Amino acid sequence: MEKMQEEVAHLEQPTPLTDKETVMIQDSWSKVFEHRDEAGVAILVRLFVNFPSSKQYFSQFKHMEEPEELQKCAQLRTHAGRVMNSLNTLVQNLHNSDKVASLLKQLGKAHALRHKVDPVYFKILSGVILEVLGEVFPEVVTPDVAAAWTKLLATLCYEMNVTYEEVGWTKPPASTG
Ligand code: HEM
């Protein structure tokens, strides 16, 4: 049964990443990014299988259930590539806080205004990213590395919520689709 948090507004702002955390994120990401296609697809398939309501935004696979079928779907693979490339740009710019802020603002605006994605799914996806990376890259994602990633993803979720509030996001009425 799909369980998700109802409320992610008013998350606390995480403290800025330390230099050590930044280096741990960049080093671990470079290893993950060598396998970006498989890693990205594994993360998104896990999201859509474990949290089926997150498929509602994707016309091509919102009714698909089988992981093998989801894995082959072009729209899923395209979004997986976009997620991995956006995270790569974010990770490469961690020393430039203005750039990080503008990347996250752009991401939040597009998902709030164009795709109308409920911000709760950023929190859910963050958990899935940590889970899958920990399983697939256990030597890379040590507890300290996982803690640094947890902080980065919490920052992403916090900034999504700030942007969603700024653009006046309101939850659309529940769909039966
Ligand atoms: C780390 C989190 C995420 C990143 C980096 C990301 C990145 C992107 C990018 C770069 C695009 C294409 C450019 C654009 O339209 O802005 C996109 C499109 C989209 N995203 Fe995300 N996304 C994330 C999370 C999510 C989540 C959690 C959902 C919904 C559950 C979602 C749903 C969509 C949809 C529906 C589109 C349009 C897809 C299409 O046109 O085929 N995204 N995303």
Automatic annotation (TrEMBL):
Keywords: Heme, Iron, Metal-binding, Oxygen transport, Transport. Signal peptide: none annotated. Pfam families: Globin. Its EC number is 1.15.1.1. GO terms for molecular function: heme binding; iron ion binding; oxygen binding; oxygen carrier activity; superoxide dismutase activity. It comes from the Eukaryota. It catalyses: Fe(III)-heme b-[protein] + nitric oxide + H2O = Fe(II)-heme b-[protein] + nitrite + 2 H(+); 2 superoxide + 2 H(+) = H2O2 + O2; H2O2 + AH2 = A + 2 H2O; Fe(II)-heme b-[protein] + nitric oxide + O2 = Fe(III)-heme b-[protein] + nitrate. Gene3D superfamilies: Globins. This is superoxide dismutase.
